[in-house]
UniProtKB/TrEMBL annotation:
Gene source species: Aurantiacibacter atlanticus
Residue span, Endonuclease GajA/Old nuclease/RecF-like AAA domain: 6-214
The entry's keywords: Endonuclease, Hydrolase, Nuclease
Protein's name according to its UniProt entry: ATP-dependent endonuclease, OLD family protein
Gene Ontology MF: a single term: endonuclease activity
Residue ranges constituting the OLD protein-like TOPRIM domain according to the UniProt record: 284-348
Coiled-coil regions, chain positions: none
Domain of life the protein comes from: Bacteria
Length: 466
């Protein structure tokens, strides 16, 4: 297997300057050695030079021309016989097969925006990208060179393709967010063979803390590693969770009451790809609160802030699915990976049947409460252990509990210093909603429903009561 596969590990902290030095153990040194062996040493004048040097050196060190070895053996024999009378030392020169010719030396320089400098004088982001490049090239070159030497491919048969397994710790280190996105795309293109110039087959493994390197569209590729406490052990252990798309499809099938086989892993995959990138943050959270849109997120986070609840400090991510129709898949993905989820949606009772989407309301309720034996779609406001829903919408609930006129007045007061219009769009701004609900509380009005949701969500996701 090692003849055709090379494993390269890129640690989180690796000195690019060391890899760039022209030494035998460095990556550049190994690359140059391969280059010399496959190219430079194939030149006839170099082979002739090596042959001439070898013959002359063999002549110089032949036993006839160097009697010193025999003299040394006699001296050692004399001293040894002081200890063992019948002992003797014999020494013969080893035959010199080939005179070693030193390889050319090289200095490596990186250029960025026209500025060239030694590797250790460039930025850490460029240095790390250089490490990925050089180790990847080294691994491929090593395997290809080994194939050339060790294996002769019969006529008519295809030569084996070099396999590379590239394992990277925290590829996001020293990279700007836009560069992280680009690097993630490059790694994926490298692994699926669509990167121009990437002829060899490559498998990519990486451990990351960045949502730019993971997505719901590739949820089945993720292995979620967490430290968990176990009984009769003083230390936490590492627990690995993975997702089966077929299992996720079966759960969705049951929630939507579809015939077995209606949903499959293959049909689920494209429905995951359309979900927003923000949801990837949920992979790294200790708990997730799923809401329909940005206004729901702003109102919930504002209420928590007023109550002195810090979701971020507890590792809780409040994520917008950008629509009620998009809540079911993230819920299943996160829960299958062991991430606790609290889901909130609007039943839209103030809309007509088509726009209210009662089938979606019922499917979400079944997902969150599979043992509830629910027959009809929920229509009332309810705050449950792991999910909540509003009869109409969160915005209408705020109007009812704070007062429509008062809420508009407080929203206007919050928007005025920012020179913003007091409308539905500005309710999506977290600071505006915080100021709006803070003014309402100062005037003795608040949303009991939102307060209850914050408390229930905190208890469900952290196991602690407020």
């Amino acid at each position: 297997m090692q003849r055709h596969t090379s494993f390269v590990f890129v640690s989180a902290v690796r000195d690019a300057a060391v890899d760039a030095t022209d030494g035998k153990s460095s990556a550049v040194g190994q690359l140059l050695e391969l280059l010399v062996r496959s190219a430079i040493q194939q030149r006839q004048e170099i082979q002739a030079f090596k042959q001439e040097m070898t013959e002359r050196y063999q002549e110089l060190v032949s036993p006839e021309n160097m009697p010193e070895l025999g003299v040394l053996a006699e001296n050692l024999t004399r001293d040894l016989r002081n200890l063992y009378e019948d002992a003797a030392v014999g020494m013969d020169w080893r035959a010199v097969d080939e005179f070693p010719v030193p390889l050319p030396m090289a200095d490596v320089e990186l250029s960025d925006d026209g500025f060239g400098a030694p590797v250790d004088r460039q930025g850490h982001g460029l240095q790390r990208a250089f490490i990925f490049t050089i180790l990847q090239h080294l691994a491929r070159s090593t395997v290809l060179a080994g194939n050339e030497v060790e294996e002769q491919v019969p006529d008519g048969e295809q030569a084996p393709v070099a396999q590379l397994i590239l394992a990277i710790e925290e590829p996001e280190l020293y990279q700007h967010p836009t560069k992280q996105r680009h690097l993630a795309e490059v790694l994926r293109s490298l692994s699926n063979g669509t990167l121009p110039g990437a002829d060899a087959q490559t498998q990519i493994l990486f451990a990351t803390h960045s949502p730019f390197f993971v997505s719901l569209g590739h949820a089945d590729e993720i292995r979620l590693a967490r430290k968990i406490a176990v009984e009769e052990c003083d230390f936490k252990i590492c627990d690995l969770q993975s997702l089966s798309l077929d299992t996720a499809a079966t759960r969705l099938e049951a929630a939507w009451q579809k015939e077995p086989g209606t949903f499959t892993g293959a049909t689920l995959m494209p429905r995951l790809h359309i979900l927003g990138a923000e949801l990837s943050e949920g992979y790294f959270a200790q708990g997730v609160i799923l809401v329909e849109g940005r206004s729901d997120k702003a109102a919930l986070e504002a209420t928590a802030r007023i109550l002195g609840v810090n979701f971020a400090s507890a590792g809780i991510a409040v994520l917008s699915a950008e629509g009620k129709e998009n809540l079911d898949r993230p819920y299943v993905v996160f829960s299958e990976l062991g991430v606790p989820v609290y889901t909130i949606w609007d039943c839209d009772g103030h809309k007509n049947a088509n726009n209210a989407r009662p089938a979606t309301n019922l499917a979400l309720a079944r997902l969150c409460n599979p043992a509830g034996n629910l027959e009809g779609a929920p229509t009332e406001t309810a705050v449950n252990l792991n999910y909540a829903h509003f009869q109409d919408s969160l915005e209408r609930t705020l109007q009812e509990e704070i007062g429509e006129a008062d809420l508009q007045q407080h929203l206007q007061a919050a928007c005025e210093p920012l020179e913003l219009p007091a409308n539905g769009e500005t309710q999506k701004i977290p600071e505006v909603m915080f100021q709006t609900l803070s003014l309402a509380r100062e005037n003795g009005r608040e949303s009991a429903t939102l307060n209850s949701i914050v408390q229930r969500a905190w208890t469900h996701l952290t196991g602690q009561n407020l």
